[in-house]
Amino acid sequence: MGETLETPGRIEPCCLEVVSEEISGLVAMLAARSAKLGARLRPKTAAHLADLVRIVNCYYSNLIEGHDTNPRDIERALGGELAEEAGRRALQVEAAAHVQVQRAVDGMAAAGRLPEPASVDFVRWLHREFYRDVPPDMLHVGNGERPFEMEPGAFRTRPEHDVVVGRHVPPSSERVDDFMRHFESRYRFASMGPDTRIMAMAAAHHRLAYIHPFPDGNGRVARLMSHAMAHAAGVGACGLWPISRGLALGLSSHGEYGRMMDYADTPRQGALDGRGNLSLRALTEFSAWFLRVCVNQVTFMDALVDPDRLRERLRAYVERDERLRPEAGLILNEVLSTGEMVRGDTARVTGLTEQAAGDLLGTLTDDGILASDTTMGPVSFRFTVHVAEILLPGLLPQA
Protein backbone atom coordinates (compact mmCIF):
# COMPACT_ATOMS: atom_id res chain seq x y z
CA MET A 1 0.00 0.00 0.00
CA GLY A 2 1.37 3.42 -0.88
CA GLU A 3 2.66 5.71 1.85
CA THR A 4 0.10 8.37 0.97
CA LEU A 5 -2.79 6.02 1.64
CA GLU A 6 -1.33 5.09 5.00
CA THR A 7 -1.69 8.62 6.31
CA PRO A 8 -4.82 9.54 8.32
CA GLY A 9 -5.90 11.81 5.49
CA ARG A 10 -6.94 8.61 3.74
CA ILE A 11 -10.36 8.86 5.48
CA GLU A 12 -11.03 12.39 4.20
CA PRO A 13 -13.46 13.90 3.56
CA CYS A 14 -14.75 13.29 7.08
CA CYS A 15 -17.50 15.88 6.84
CA LEU A 16 -19.77 17.18 4.09
CA GLU A 17 -18.29 20.18 2.32
CA VAL A 18 -21.66 21.35 1.00
CA VAL A 19 -24.93 20.55 2.76
CA SER A 20 -27.68 19.72 0.32
CA GLU A 21 -31.28 20.78 0.75
CA GLU A 22 -32.22 17.11 1.20
CA ILE A 23 -29.79 16.60 4.08
CA SER A 24 -30.79 19.89 5.73
CA GLY A 25 -34.39 18.72 5.60
CA LEU A 26 -33.53 15.31 7.04
CA VAL A 27 -31.57 16.89 9.90
CA ALA A 28 -34.50 19.16 10.77
CA MET A 29 -36.96 16.28 10.50
CA LEU A 30 -34.87 14.01 12.73
CA ALA A 31 -34.49 16.71 15.36
CA ALA A 32 -38.21 17.51 15.40
CA ARG A 33 -39.48 13.94 15.35
CA SER A 34 -37.03 12.68 17.97
CA ALA A 35 -38.07 15.53 20.29
CA LYS A 36 -41.72 14.54 19.80
CA LEU A 37 -40.94 10.87 20.47
CA GLY A 38 -38.95 11.70 23.59
CA ALA A 39 -41.96 13.54 25.04
CA ARG A 40 -44.57 10.91 24.08
CA LEU A 41 -44.53 8.88 27.29
CA ARG A 42 -44.28 9.46 31.00
CA PRO A 43 -40.65 9.13 32.21
CA LYS A 44 -41.25 5.86 34.03
CA THR A 45 -42.96 4.30 31.02
CA ALA A 46 -40.26 5.59 28.67
CA ALA A 47 -37.51 4.17 30.88
CA HIS A 48 -39.00 0.69 30.81
CA LEU A 49 -39.68 0.87 27.07
CA ALA A 50 -35.99 1.73 26.61
CA ASP A 51 -35.20 -1.62 28.26
CA LEU A 52 -37.04 -3.35 25.43
CA VAL A 53 -35.48 -1.13 22.75
CA ARG A 54 -32.05 -2.32 23.92
CA ILE A 55 -33.12 -5.90 23.23
CA VAL A 56 -34.42 -4.86 19.81
CA ASN A 57 -31.19 -3.02 19.00
CA CYS A 58 -29.14 -5.98 20.17
CA TYR A 59 -31.18 -8.48 18.15
CA TYR A 60 -30.76 -6.54 14.91
CA SER A 61 -27.11 -5.68 15.51
CA ASN A 62 -26.39 -9.37 15.99
CA LEU A 63 -28.49 -10.20 12.91
CA ILE A 64 -26.30 -7.89 10.83
CA GLU A 65 -23.34 -10.01 11.99
CA GLY A 66 -25.14 -13.21 10.98
CA HIS A 67 -26.16 -14.18 14.53
CA ASP A 68 -29.91 -14.78 14.75
CA THR A 69 -30.48 -14.67 18.52
CA ASN A 70 -34.12 -15.05 19.53
CA PRO A 71 -35.30 -11.96 21.49
CA ARG A 72 -36.73 -14.26 24.16
CA ASP A 73 -33.30 -15.83 24.56
CA ILE A 74 -31.80 -12.35 24.99
CA GLU A 75 -34.38 -11.57 27.64
CA ARG A 76 -33.66 -14.87 29.41
CA ALA A 77 -29.92 -14.18 29.34
CA LEU A 78 -30.45 -10.80 31.00
CA GLY A 79 -32.28 -12.67 33.76
CA GLY A 80 -29.40 -15.11 34.14
CA GLU A 81 -31.17 -17.99 32.37
CA LEU A 82 -28.70 -19.48 29.89
CA ALA A 83 -29.25 -22.38 27.52
CA GLU A 84 -27.44 -25.68 28.05
CA GLU A 85 -26.41 -25.95 24.40
CA ALA A 86 -22.99 -24.28 24.08
CA GLY A 87 -23.56 -22.39 20.83
CA ARG A 88 -26.88 -20.95 21.89
CA ARG A 89 -25.47 -20.04 25.30
CA ALA A 90 -22.52 -18.20 23.70
CA LEU A 91 -24.94 -16.12 21.61
CA GLN A 92 -26.92 -15.30 24.75
CA VAL A 93 -23.79 -14.12 26.56
CA GLU A 94 -22.81 -12.01 23.57
CA ALA A 95 -26.29 -10.48 23.41
CA ALA A 96 -26.44 -9.74 27.13
CA ALA A 97 -23.10 -7.94 26.87
CA HIS A 98 -24.47 -5.73 24.08
CA VAL A 99 -27.56 -4.81 26.10
CA GLN A 100 -25.51 -4.02 29.19
CA VAL A 101 -23.17 -1.71 27.26
CA GLN A 102 -26.11 0.13 25.72
CA ARG A 103 -27.74 0.41 29.15
CA ALA A 104 -24.55 2.01 30.46
CA VAL A 105 -24.49 4.45 27.52
CA ASP A 106 -28.13 5.39 28.14
CA GLY A 107 -27.40 5.89 31.82
CA MET A 108 -24.46 8.20 31.12
CA ALA A 109 -26.56 10.19 28.66
CA ALA A 110 -29.43 10.56 31.14
CA ALA A 111 -27.01 11.73 33.83
CA GLY A 112 -25.27 14.20 31.49
CA ARG A 113 -21.98 12.28 31.78
CA LEU A 114 -21.62 10.93 28.26
CA PRO A 115 -18.03 11.42 26.97
CA GLU A 116 -17.17 12.52 23.46
CA PRO A 117 -18.68 9.56 21.56
CA ALA A 118 -16.00 9.53 18.84
CA SER A 119 -13.08 9.82 21.24
CA VAL A 120 -10.42 7.14 21.26
CA ASP A 121 -11.05 6.42 24.92
CA PHE A 122 -14.81 5.99 24.47
CA VAL A 123 -14.53 3.81 21.37
CA ARG A 124 -12.06 1.58 23.18
CA TRP A 125 -14.34 1.51 26.23
CA LEU A 126 -17.25 0.29 24.09
CA HIS A 127 -15.16 -2.59 22.75
CA ARG A 128 -13.68 -3.47 26.14
CA GLU A 129 -17.07 -3.49 27.87
CA PHE A 130 -18.64 -5.59 25.13
CA TYR A 131 -15.95 -8.27 25.25
CA ARG A 132 -15.05 -8.09 28.94
CA ASP A 133 -17.04 -11.12 30.13
CA VAL A 134 -17.45 -13.18 26.96
CA PRO A 135 -16.21 -16.80 26.83
CA PRO A 136 -12.49 -17.07 25.89
CA ASP A 137 -13.25 -18.73 22.57
CA MET A 138 -15.06 -15.56 21.45
CA LEU A 139 -11.73 -13.74 21.69
CA HIS A 140 -10.04 -16.20 19.35
CA VAL A 141 -9.55 -14.54 15.97
CA GLY A 142 -8.44 -16.14 12.73
CA ASN A 143 -8.44 -19.71 11.52
CA GLY A 144 -5.51 -19.44 9.13
CA GLU A 145 -1.77 -19.37 9.67
CA ARG A 146 -1.72 -16.64 12.33
CA PRO A 147 -4.61 -17.01 14.79
CA PHE A 148 -4.42 -14.92 17.96
CA GLU A 149 -6.34 -13.94 21.08
CA MET A 150 -7.95 -10.52 20.89
CA GLU A 151 -7.53 -8.15 23.84
CA PRO A 152 -10.80 -6.34 24.67
CA GLY A 153 -10.45 -2.61 24.05
CA ALA A 154 -7.11 -2.87 22.24
CA PHE A 155 -6.63 -1.57 18.70
CA ARG A 156 -4.94 -3.55 15.97
CA THR A 157 -1.16 -3.15 16.34
CA ARG A 158 0.60 -6.22 14.89
CA PRO A 159 0.96 -7.62 11.36
CA GLU A 160 -1.26 -10.60 12.21
CA HIS A 161 -4.04 -8.10 12.97
CA ASP A 162 -4.11 -6.84 9.37
CA VAL A 163 -7.41 -7.65 7.68
CA VAL A 164 -9.30 -7.45 4.42
CA VAL A 165 -13.04 -6.69 4.65
CA GLY A 166 -14.72 -7.68 1.40
CA ARG A 167 -13.06 -5.49 -1.22
CA HIS A 168 -11.79 -3.03 1.38
CA VAL A 169 -8.25 -3.10 2.78
CA PRO A 170 -8.28 -1.10 6.04
CA PRO A 171 -5.20 0.82 7.23
CA SER A 172 -2.37 -1.43 8.34
CA SER A 173 -2.34 -2.30 12.02
CA GLU A 174 0.72 -0.22 12.84
CA ARG A 175 -1.10 2.94 11.69
CA VAL A 176 -4.47 2.41 13.39
CA ASP A 177 -3.64 4.58 16.39
CA ASP A 178 -2.76 7.54 14.13
CA PHE A 179 -5.96 7.08 12.14
CA MET A 180 -8.06 6.95 15.31
CA ARG A 181 -6.49 10.12 16.69
CA HIS A 182 -7.39 11.85 13.44
CA PHE A 183 -10.89 10.35 13.63
CA GLU A 184 -11.34 11.74 17.14
CA SER A 185 -10.23 15.22 16.11
CA ARG A 186 -12.55 15.31 13.08
CA TYR A 187 -15.66 14.15 14.95
CA ARG A 188 -15.26 16.05 18.18
CA PHE A 189 -18.79 17.20 19.07
CA ALA A 190 -17.58 19.98 21.37
CA SER A 191 -16.55 21.99 18.30
CA MET A 192 -19.77 21.35 16.33
CA GLY A 193 -23.18 22.98 16.25
CA PRO A 194 -26.39 20.96 16.72
CA ASP A 195 -27.07 20.34 13.02
CA THR A 196 -23.45 19.44 12.27
CA ARG A 197 -23.51 16.87 15.05
CA ILE A 198 -26.50 15.13 13.51
CA MET A 199 -24.85 15.06 10.09
CA ALA A 200 -21.60 13.80 11.59
CA MET A 201 -23.36 10.72 12.97
CA ALA A 202 -23.57 9.24 9.49
CA ALA A 203 -20.05 10.02 8.34
CA ALA A 204 -18.47 8.87 11.60
CA HIS A 205 -20.33 5.57 11.40
CA HIS A 206 -18.78 4.76 8.06
CA ARG A 207 -15.32 6.14 8.75
CA LEU A 208 -14.94 4.11 11.96
CA ALA A 209 -15.83 0.94 10.06
CA TYR A 210 -13.42 2.01 7.29
CA ILE A 211 -10.54 2.23 9.77
CA HIS A 212 -11.58 -1.11 11.29
CA PRO A 213 -9.61 -0.36 14.46
CA PHE A 214 -10.17 -3.69 16.23
CA PRO A 215 -9.43 -7.22 15.06
CA ASP A 216 -13.12 -8.06 15.50
CA GLY A 217 -16.33 -6.43 16.75
CA ASN A 218 -16.03 -3.23 14.70
CA GLY A 219 -19.60 -3.30 13.39
CA ARG A 220 -21.10 -3.63 16.85
CA VAL A 221 -18.86 -0.88 18.21
CA ALA A 222 -19.79 1.42 15.31
CA ARG A 223 -23.50 0.91 15.94
CA LEU A 224 -23.12 1.44 19.70
CA MET A 225 -21.09 4.57 18.98
CA SER A 226 -23.85 5.83 16.68
CA HIS A 227 -26.38 5.21 19.46
CA ALA A 228 -24.22 7.30 21.78
CA MET A 229 -23.82 9.98 19.11
CA ALA A 230 -27.60 10.23 18.77
CA HIS A 231 -27.81 11.00 22.49
CA ALA A 232 -24.98 13.54 22.27
CA ALA A 233 -26.54 15.15 19.18
CA GLY A 234 -29.85 15.62 20.99
CA VAL A 235 -31.81 13.11 18.92
CA GLY A 236 -31.59 10.08 21.19
CA ALA A 237 -35.21 10.47 22.40
CA CYS A 238 -34.47 8.80 25.75
CA GLY A 239 -33.19 5.69 23.97
CA LEU A 240 -36.60 4.95 22.43
CA TRP A 241 -35.59 4.20 18.83
CA PRO A 242 -33.35 1.33 17.64
CA ILE A 243 -30.78 2.40 15.09
CA SER A 244 -29.65 -1.17 14.41
CA ARG A 245 -33.17 -2.18 13.45
CA GLY A 246 -33.17 0.48 10.75
CA LEU A 247 -29.74 -0.47 9.47
CA ALA A 248 -30.62 -4.17 9.36
CA LEU A 249 -33.96 -3.72 7.60
CA GLY A 250 -32.91 -0.86 5.32
CA LEU A 251 -35.42 1.33 3.55
CA SER A 252 -36.35 -1.14 0.82
CA SER A 253 -34.24 -4.28 1.36
CA HIS A 254 -32.19 -6.02 4.02
CA GLY A 255 -28.97 -5.76 2.02
CA GLU A 256 -28.90 -1.98 1.79
CA TYR A 257 -26.63 -1.42 4.78
CA GLY A 258 -23.80 -3.50 3.36
CA ARG A 259 -24.18 -2.00 -0.10
CA MET A 260 -24.23 1.58 1.18
CA MET A 261 -21.22 0.99 3.45
CA ASP A 262 -19.36 -0.49 0.48
CA TYR A 263 -20.41 2.43 -1.71
CA ALA A 264 -19.08 4.93 0.84
CA ASP A 265 -15.64 3.26 0.43
CA THR A 266 -15.51 4.64 -3.14
CA PRO A 267 -12.31 6.59 -3.95
CA ARG A 268 -12.59 10.16 -5.20
CA GLN A 269 -13.96 10.27 -8.74
CA GLY A 270 -12.20 13.21 -10.34
CA ALA A 271 -11.79 16.93 -9.70
CA LEU A 272 -15.51 17.55 -9.10
CA ASP A 273 -15.79 14.92 -6.37
CA GLY A 274 -14.43 16.79 -3.38
CA ARG A 275 -10.87 17.28 -2.24
CA GLY A 276 -10.17 14.17 -0.18
CA ASN A 277 -9.03 10.63 -0.86
CA LEU A 278 -12.57 9.22 -0.75
CA SER A 279 -15.58 10.24 -2.81
CA LEU A 280 -17.51 13.20 -1.42
CA ARG A 281 -20.49 12.25 -3.59
CA ALA A 282 -20.56 8.76 -2.06
CA LEU A 283 -20.29 10.17 1.47
CA THR A 284 -23.13 12.59 0.76
CA GLU A 285 -25.40 9.85 -0.58
CA PHE A 286 -24.49 7.54 2.29
CA SER A 287 -25.22 10.32 4.81
CA ALA A 288 -28.63 10.99 3.27
CA TRP A 289 -29.43 7.27 3.37
CA PHE A 290 -28.28 6.93 6.98
CA LEU A 291 -30.35 9.93 8.09
CA ARG A 292 -33.40 8.61 6.25
CA VAL A 293 -32.98 5.33 8.15
CA CYS A 294 -32.86 7.26 11.43
CA VAL A 295 -35.95 9.29 10.56
CA ASN A 296 -37.72 6.10 9.51
CA GLN A 297 -37.08 4.44 12.88
CA VAL A 298 -38.05 7.51 14.91
CA THR A 299 -41.25 7.86 12.89
CA PHE A 300 -42.04 4.17 13.30
CA MET A 301 -41.56 4.30 17.07
CA ASP A 302 -43.54 7.53 17.40
CA ALA A 303 -46.54 5.93 15.69
CA LEU A 304 -46.13 2.77 17.75
CA VAL A 305 -46.27 4.59 21.10
CA ASP A 306 -48.97 7.10 20.16
CA PRO A 307 -51.14 7.12 23.34
CA ASP A 308 -54.43 6.72 21.47
CA ARG A 309 -53.15 3.71 19.55
CA LEU A 310 -51.62 2.26 22.70
CA ARG A 311 -54.99 2.53 24.44
CA GLU A 312 -56.62 0.61 21.59
CA ARG A 313 -54.05 -2.16 21.93
CA LEU A 314 -54.42 -2.18 25.70
CA ARG A 315 -58.13 -2.74 25.24
CA ALA A 316 -57.42 -5.61 22.85
CA TYR A 317 -54.87 -6.98 25.33
CA VAL A 318 -57.56 -7.19 28.00
CA GLU A 319 -60.23 -8.59 25.69
CA ARG A 320 -58.07 -11.45 24.45
CA ASP A 321 -57.24 -12.73 27.96
CA GLU A 322 -60.19 -14.51 29.56
CA ARG A 323 -58.59 -14.15 32.99
CA LEU A 324 -58.96 -10.37 32.89
CA ARG A 325 -62.08 -8.44 33.78
CA PRO A 326 -62.93 -5.36 31.65
CA GLU A 327 -61.84 -3.14 34.58
CA ALA A 328 -58.25 -4.20 33.86
CA GLY A 329 -58.35 -1.70 31.01
CA LEU A 330 -59.04 1.08 33.52
CA ILE A 331 -55.92 0.13 35.46
CA LEU A 332 -53.75 0.03 32.35
CA ASN A 333 -55.08 3.37 31.09
CA GLU A 334 -54.40 4.95 34.48
CA VAL A 335 -50.80 3.74 34.41
CA LEU A 336 -50.39 4.97 30.83
CA SER A 337 -51.69 8.41 31.83
CA THR A 338 -49.69 8.79 35.04
CA GLY A 339 -46.61 6.65 34.50
CA GLU A 340 -47.15 4.67 37.68
CA MET A 341 -50.01 3.93 40.07
CA VAL A 342 -50.05 3.42 43.81
CA ARG A 343 -51.49 -0.01 44.56
CA GLY A 344 -54.00 1.45 46.96
CA ASP A 345 -55.61 3.39 44.11
CA THR A 346 -56.67 0.23 42.27
CA ALA A 347 -60.12 0.04 43.89
CA ARG A 348 -60.78 3.73 43.23
CA VAL A 349 -59.75 3.46 39.59
CA THR A 350 -61.79 0.32 38.89
CA GLY A 351 -64.78 0.82 41.21
CA LEU A 352 -64.28 -2.74 42.47
CA THR A 353 -63.99 -3.94 46.05
CA GLU A 354 -60.51 -3.90 47.57
CA GLN A 355 -60.30 -7.69 47.27
CA ALA A 356 -61.46 -7.86 43.64
CA ALA A 357 -59.26 -4.94 42.64
CA GLY A 358 -56.25 -6.50 44.34
CA ASP A 359 -56.85 -9.81 42.60
CA LEU A 360 -57.13 -8.08 39.22
CA LEU A 361 -53.90 -6.17 39.77
CA GLY A 362 -52.24 -9.42 40.78
CA THR A 363 -53.25 -11.02 37.49
CA LEU A 364 -51.73 -8.10 35.55
CA THR A 365 -48.47 -8.31 37.47
CA ASP A 366 -48.35 -12.08 37.07
CA ASP A 367 -48.71 -11.57 33.33
CA GLY A 368 -45.72 -9.21 33.39
CA ILE A 369 -47.33 -6.14 31.84
CA LEU A 370 -47.18 -4.29 35.19
CA ALA A 371 -44.59 -4.54 37.95
CA SER A 372 -43.07 -2.51 40.76
CA ASP A 373 -39.53 -1.88 41.94
CA THR A 374 -40.39 -3.03 45.47
CA THR A 375 -42.88 -5.56 46.83
CA MET A 376 -45.59 -3.04 47.61
CA GLY A 377 -44.36 -0.11 45.52
CA PRO A 378 -46.26 1.69 42.75
CA VAL A 379 -46.81 -0.31 39.58
CA SER A 380 -45.65 0.76 36.13
CA PHE A 381 -45.48 -0.78 32.67
CA ARG A 382 -42.94 -3.48 31.82
CA PHE A 383 -42.39 -4.14 28.13
CA THR A 384 -41.34 -7.78 28.08
CA VAL A 385 -40.92 -9.56 24.76
CA HIS A 386 -44.28 -11.27 25.35
CA VAL A 387 -46.03 -7.97 26.04
CA ALA A 388 -44.31 -6.27 23.08
CA GLU A 389 -45.57 -8.88 20.64
CA ILE A 390 -49.10 -7.73 21.49
CA LEU A 391 -48.73 -4.02 22.31
CA LEU A 392 -45.97 -3.04 19.88
CA PRO A 393 -46.63 -4.95 16.64
CA GLY A 394 -43.78 -5.01 14.17
CA LEU A 395 -41.07 -3.90 16.59
CA LEU A 396 -39.77 -7.43 17.02
CA PRO A 397 -39.52 -10.13 14.35
CA GLN A 398 -42.34 -12.60 13.99
CA ALA A 399 -42.03 -15.39 16.56
TrEMBL record:
Top-rank lineage group of the source organism: Bacteria
A Pfam short name: Fic
Fido domain residues: 118-292
PANTHER family named among the record's database cross-references: FIDO DOMAIN-CONTAINING PROTEIN (PTHR13504:SF38), FIDO DOMAIN-CONTAINING PROTEIN DDB_G0283145 (PTHR13504)
Name listed for the protein in its UniProt record: Fic family protein
Provenance organism: Azospirillum argentinense
